[in-house]
Amino acid sequence: MTDPLLAAMRAGQPLTGVDVIDVHAHLGPYSLFFVPDSDASAMVDVMRRTGVRVAVLSSHRAIQYDAHSGNSETLRAADRFPDRIAGYAVVNPWQRPERELRRLAGEPRFVGVKVHPDLHEYPLTGAAYEPLWEYAADRGLPVLTHTWHTSPYDDPEVVDAVLVRHPGVRLILGHSGVSPAGMAASVPVVRRHPAAYLEVCGSSMTGPLVRWLVEQVGASRVLFGSDFPFIDQRMSLGRVVGAGLTAAAATAVLGGNAARLFGWPASRNQTLVATGEARD
């Protein structure tokens, strides 16, 4: 039976019949190398061409330079494109994290938190993150963390230690450990902790690896993310669409799981794949 998602992708057409939510995106220039078309308008234009309904993003400014001003940049983008962009508040343990948590508590435009232990050189298990874990567990707030296999700051084993102490945290393992070895280490973490999710963006990710992750933890525990515009969203989306997933698994990974995680209604366009008409 013809796969309409794969056919649309090969024809360069937006995906239809399935709700697509990108849970790992960024905004703005990056200091170490050039990232083209990194402003909100250019990103939304790409999303219209891919068929991605919403991108949940954090600004590079917030991650690299100043969390407070960068988080304001994220909110401006969300205000400009409220139906297309949602924001993560970056919490940097070295930059008054309690201030960003207070801001988060009064700011409904933030739908989650982004942390980057490797870039900030501070372990997820450090004391400065404890108020965040307590807040996120109490509020049911999703947290996206960078993960990197063998890192002293956010290796999957470090993630596991956080979840042992705070089992209620809805934690997204960004990049799923990055490398195949990191993915193998991330799988048992997600199996052990029912509020944890794997996310599939990264330079090492492939369609077969996406399919393997789904087989290992179940389609309900895997989320589509792209690292867009750091990595082209079209390429990241193609890995998932071309992974050979069943109709139900594709629906879950591409957006169904994210909609439930963030408490959003599913798109009215989610019809073809959700009803199982697309694939065997």
What does this structure look like?
The protein has a single domain, classed as Alpha-Beta Barrel (TIM Barrel), CATH 3.20.20. 42% of the residues lie in helices and 14% in strands. It contains 12 helices and 8 strands. An 8-stranded parallel β-sheet has the order 1-2-3-4-5-6-7-8, with helices on both faces. The longest helix has 16 residues. The chain is globular, with a radius of gyration of 17 Å. The C terminus is likely disordered.
Q: What topology emerges from the helices and strands here?
A:
Elements: H1 4-10, E1 21-27, H2 40-50, E2 54-59, H3 60-64, H4 67-80, E3 85-90, H5 97-105, E4 110-115, H6 117-120, H7 130-139, E5 143-146, H8 156-165, E6 171-174, H9 180-192, E7 196-199, H10 207-217, E8 222-223, H11 233-241, H12 247-262
Parallel strand pairs: 1-2, 2-3, 3-4, 4-5, 5-6, 6-7, 7-8
